[in-house]
């Protein structure tokens, strides 16, 4: 995973340049508050030291080795008994179903853990090999490069996840946000492969993002505590909905969350490069945000109040795996209501940004601590001196 000074060491390094680069890289002081600059390290003098320096400067390298090792282990014996299979592929296929359906079980945790590593690799590789060079080519100032990379990865992931989520929903009877179907087919124990892959990959992504947040691998914003609360509630919603078979509600919630985040990140990156597209993209973001994060979220929440009990079975039956009762209703409503409250809070900040943008054409994120400081720093050069 990247650290807060990752943007300053994200150029594509070759293994033959590690010795000359490692000393200068380590002289760069950390940007995390409350820490002193690191002491310079001597250049590595052993082969192991060279590889350690390479892995330290290229944070995608170790996750890539883990991924390749798992794939290699599976290719040695690509059968059901291979211990690597549940890490790479969804488990519990149900024979005799067409299209093939998949159940749930403990092996799903192996799939999630492996794709946490996959998302770690994807994030670091994209930031260091794609987004950092792009930021330098655009002449971004040094303080904005890290934010540009973070938002760029957000655009990549949520564009893919929102598109795939909409595709998955379009192949169910709940299209388009038909809340009655959340409960009519309960319990949703079996799923098609695309649904299960999507849901567990979302679990892996949010778990990986929580690790990034908890370890403060990204510079904390002013709403750090709200973000922590959001990630905790999101992980609880995903885990509980998977365990107790409320996954169709979860699918709808995913789409409402992911769709708006694309436009938020896009508007921020356009703002970083002073693009004339900032205003129309920001206006689009506001429209998508209020439609998905407030209107659709309120519809989902209202359905928990009005349809959760009246549509579908209302009982606790451990053999049938029916868990639709007043306890699960209160828990579901409480967690979704917490998400809605956070959305309302962020909507207030968005309204303030929009008001200031209309008056002064300034679109600074209310949550950021570093953007003023970024203006004082020199532009990042396309090549290191």
Low-pLDDT residue spans: 1-37, 370-385
What strand line-up does the widest sheet have? 1-2-3
What integer value in Å does the Rg equal? 23 Å
- Helix fraction, binned, reads 55-70%
- Domain count: the total is 1
Order of helices and strands: HHHHEEHHHEHHHHEEHH
- The count of strands amounts to 5
Characterize the main sheet.
3 strands, antiparallel
Q: What number is the mean pLDDT?
A: 86
Shape summary: flat
Helix and strand composition category: mainly alpha
- Cα(first) to Cα(last) distance is 25 Å
Range of strand content = under 5%
Count of alpha/pi helices: 13
Task: Describe the protein's architecture and organization.
With 385 residues, the protein is mostly helical. The chain has one domain (90-365). The protein has 13 helices and five strands. It has a three-stranded antiparallel sheet. The chain has a two-stranded antiparallel ribbon with strand order 4-5. Keywords: Endoplasmic reticulum, Glycoprotein, Membrane, Transferase, Transmembrane, Transmembrane helix. Residues 143-359 form the TLC domain.
Brief account:
This protein is mainly alpha-helical and 385 residues long. It has helices at residues 18-25, 47-57, 61-76, 85-88, 108-137, 142-170, 180-184, 193-214, 224-243, 247-272, 278-306, 326-360, 371-374; strands spanning 93-94, 101-102, 191-192, 315-317, 322-324. Helix content is 62%, strand content 3%.
């Amino acid at each position: 995973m990247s650290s807060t000074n990752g943007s300053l060491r994200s150029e594509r390094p070759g293994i033959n340049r590690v010795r000359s680069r490692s000393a200068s890289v380590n002289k760069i002081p950390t940007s995390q508050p409350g820490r002193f600059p690191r002491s310079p390290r001597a250049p590595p003098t052993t082969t192991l030291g060279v590889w350690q320096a390479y892995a330290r400067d290229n944070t995608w390298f170790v996750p890539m080795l883990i991924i390749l090792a798992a794939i290699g282990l599976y290719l040695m014996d690509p059968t059901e008994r291979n211990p690597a299979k549940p890490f790479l592929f969804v488990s519990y296929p149900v024979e005799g179903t067409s299209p093939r359906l998949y159940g749930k079980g403990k092996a799903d945790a192996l799939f999630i853990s492996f794709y946490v590593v996959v998302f770690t690799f994807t994030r670091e590789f994209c930031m260091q090999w794609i987004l950092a060079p792009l930021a330098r080519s655009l002449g971004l100032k040094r303080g904005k490069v890290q934010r540009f990379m973070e938002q760029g990865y957000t655009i990549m992931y949520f564009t893919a996840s929102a598109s795939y989520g909409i595709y998955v929903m379009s192949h169910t009877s709940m299209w388009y946000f038909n809340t009655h179907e959340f409960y009519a087919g309960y319990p949703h124990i079996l799923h098609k492969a695309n649904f299960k892959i999507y849901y567990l990959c979302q679990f892996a992504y949010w778990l990986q993002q929580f690790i990034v947040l908890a370890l403060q691998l990204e510079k904390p914003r002013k709403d750090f505590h709200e973000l922590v609360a959001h990630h905790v509630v999101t992980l609880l919603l995903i885990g509980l909905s998977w365990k107790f078979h409320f996954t169709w509600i979860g699918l709808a919630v995913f789409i409402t969350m992911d769709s708006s985040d694309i436009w938020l990140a896009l508007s921020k990156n356009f703002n970083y490069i002073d693009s004339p597209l900032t205003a129309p993209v920001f206006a689009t973001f506001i429209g998508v945000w209020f439609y998905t994060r407030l209107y659709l979220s309120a519809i989902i929440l209202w359905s928990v109040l009005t349809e959760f009990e009246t549509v579908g079975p209302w009982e606790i039956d451990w053999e049938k795996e029916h868990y639709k009762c007043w306890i699960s209703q209160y828990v579901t409503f409480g967690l979704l209501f917490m998400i809605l409250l956070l959305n309302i809070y962020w909507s207030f900040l968005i309204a303030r940004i929009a008001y200031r943008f209309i008056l002064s054409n300034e679109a600074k994120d209310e949550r950021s601590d570093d953007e003023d400081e970024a203006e004082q720093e020199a532009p990042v050069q396309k090549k290191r001196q």
